[in-house]
Amino acid sequence: MTQSTESTDAPQAAAPSAFSLRRRLLIWMAVPLLVFVVFDAWLSYRTALSTTQTAYDRLLVTAAHALGDMIRLERGELQVTLPHTALELYSTDVRTDLREQPGRSPLLYRVNFLNGDFLAGDAAIPAYTGLPPVNNAYASRLQFYDGQMADGEPARFVALWQPVESAEGMRYVVVQVGEYVSYRYAISRSILWNTLARQFGLLLLLLMAMWIVATWALRPLRVLARSVEQRSPEDLKPLSAAATPEEVGPLLSAFNGLLARVDDARQRQQRFVADASHQLRTPLAVLQLHAEAGLQGDVPAPEALRSIADTTVRTSRVVHQLLMWNRAHVDSHELAHSAQAVDLHALMQEVAVELSPLLARKQLDFSLDAPQPAVWTGQRWMVEEVLKNLLTNAIQHTPPRLELGMRLRRSTLAAQDGWELEVWDSGTGLSPEVVARLFEPFITGGGKGVGLGLAICRDLALALGGTLGVRNRAEPGSDDSGEKNGAQGVSATLFLPQGDASAG
Q1: Dist CA 473 CA 484 (whole Å)
Q2: Closest by Cα among 143, 144, 151 to 182
Q3: Res 336: pLDDT
Q4: What CATH number does domain 334-503 carry, 3.20.20.70, 3.10.20.30, 3.30.565.10, 3.40.50.300?
Q5: Residue 74's CB: how many other CB atoms inside 10 A?
Q6: Residues 6 or more apart from 274 whose CB is under 8 A from it?
Q7: pLDDT, tens only, 177-222
Q8: Going by C-beta distance under 8 Å and a sequence separation of 6 or more, which residues neighbour residue 191?
Q9: What is the β-pairing status of strands 374-378 and 418-424?
Q10: Contacts by 40-43 with C-beta closer than 8 Å and gap 24+?
Q11: pLDDT category of residue 415 using cuts at 50, 70 and 90
Q12: Whole-number pLDDT of residue 60
């Protein structure tokens, strides 16, 4: 009992862990949005950093030019005199330190001669002794470069070659202005976090909106699910598609098709059970009567046993035909996977050999006309069952010492290539009333059978994708090449589509 409970509850416990359609839709929409947000944030950060770099590079240039304009020649010596008001240029907007250098202005400067000798400013800044650029985007000779401050912090510098007139002629000094790059990165990060905050807020609002929309859009599916849950197992009517979205139409159509197939299978099963019960009730009653008669001495024991044996044979054939009739309704997918190459000539020979005792008992003249080999691809057991039923019927309805046979030829139908397997006899033929209802179950042509043979053959032929036709051979246009002494007879023809068949 414990194991049964666990096995029953396992699927129910696993159901919540599966992603619902709504969750899948949200994930499929949220993932691209999240990727877009991350990419846009990275792009915004790069743009902010580039803009910050450009803006503050221009500030460095402005500061370098301001310093260069303050260089004077006094008493034959170069002097850099910075009034107190000039220091405001280096502290506007950048006076705040940025954690790394508390209370310290990020703008630092140094003025030195071309040989690197210190003239003014912060001596801790490494002197720039490189050559001036030949071409530059700025009017003056400027050179931007990255380096380090004296404390080891990364910095951004600009070097300006400033000319100064003297008695000896034009002299040059190098003006260096630097700034801690941490300030620039801090501004870029601030822009990044502000952008991310706005975008993630917008993303949450979009997800909430999509959750509401998805819930509303999937409401017809929940209504459909409730309608299916509320149905009884016996209700197999098609579901209505009136309030179903167009996208769910194929699913609903397939489900209705499944219901139709299930209903058809149920009806076939019910008919099979009813027919089997009806057909087996009589022979079982006969067996009981023969057994009781033998036991009570009303008939001799050997006669009673003989009657029981005959009835048992007929009952066995009825059971076999009922099983074959039920098996004839095979799913097309199962047929496609079980197809095999079949030599039709060899199969017809095997059926004739198996039924040869019945032929010999009535002294019938049997003939087989078939090309060799004749290969067809399909279900061998189906074709074999059709041939056995047709040949058995032909033997039963052919008088002793007359002829019957089987033929195999290419189809004469222009629309479809294939094989025609014909079983013919020399019996008395069929009445028009019997011909009209010949393929109905339990309709006989006057023999000792139960009327299932041709119904089975018809269903098997349809399952193979072919057809089965039965006619009197004396009708106009019939092939009477096998007739003898003007006998009428019946011809049954099984058509098998070519498919992957071939003949040698």
Answers
A1: 12
A2: 151
A3: 58
A4: 3.30.565.10
A5: 8
A6: none
A7: 888 888 778 878 888 888 888 888 888 888 888 888 877 877 777 7
A8: 44, 45, 48
A9: unpaired
A10: 40/195, 40/199, 41/192, 41/195, 41/196, 41/199
A11: low
A12: 85
Query: What ranges do the domains of the chain cover?
Result: 19-230, 252-327, 334-503
**CA–CA dist 400, 391 (Å, integer):** 15
Instruction: Please state the three-class secondary structure of 404-473 as a single string.
Output: EEEEEEECCCCCCCEEEEEEECCCCCCCHHHHHCCCCCCCCCCCCCCCCHHHHHHHHHHHCCCEEEEEEC
Distance from C-alpha of 52 to C-alpha of 58, rounded to nearest angstrom: 10
Q: Is 146 helix (H, G, I), strand (E, B) or coil?
A: strand
Rounded Cα distance, 56 and 120, in Å: 23
Pairwise CA distance, residues 345 & 349, whole Å: 6
DSSP state of 84: G
Return the residue matching tokens 């028009």. 432
Query: In CATH terms, are 252-327 and 334-503 the same topology?
Result: no
Question: In this predicted model, what pLDDT tens digit does every residue of 474-495 receive, in sequence order?
Answer: 654 445 444 444 447 899 999 9
What is the rounded CA–CA span in Å between residue 64 and residue 60?
A: 6
Q: How many CB atoms lie within 10 A of CB 267?
A: 11
In angstroms, the CA 46 to CA 308 distance is 99
Look-up of token digits 């999509």:
210
Tell me the per-residue pLDDT of 240-253, one tens digit each, with 9 for 90 and over: 766 666 767 777 78
Indicate the pTM of the whole model.
0.47
Q: Is 482 exposed, middle or buried (0-12, 13-18, 19+ CB in 10 A)?
A: buried
Q: Cα(494)–Cα(457) distance, rounded to whole angstroms? A: 9
Class of domain 252-327: mainly alpha
